[in-house]
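Re: the request from the purification team.
They wanted to know what the chain is likely to look like in 3D before they choose a buffer screen. I agreed to run a prediction and write the result into the notebook, where they can find it.
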Amino acid sequence: MPTWKLSTEFSFDSAHFIKDYQGPCGRMHGHTYKVKIEVQSSQLHSSEYCPHPVMVADFKTLRWAKKDVTKGGLDHCVLNEVLPPEYETTAEMIAKYIYDQTKEQLTTDVKLKVAVSETPNSWAEYGDD
């Protein structure tokens, strides 16, 4: 069955530390996180912003994490203070957090993948197969 695939990339700036990490990552520091999101579906949907079924998902919905922390995003925050305790602030867990929060806003038939980078050469990905 044919499907649509939608991709978007964005970045946000935040600080964090990895609890109990023996080394520099255990101290407060910051990154410009890069995020890649892919969604795929065999159906088109409406969104909070458009009542017509003409998109896999709305780009606004997918890019929620790039908003300022005071507006519900992750930009310019201390991730350790914003993410629930079950999400350690590694790239892997940040990807899972963004996945979990985004998945709640999508219909069940939409497949989702989230990749997060802290540095130019390293990525962590979490998502549906």
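For the purification team: DSSP finds three helices and four strands in the chain.
Please add any questions underneath this entry.
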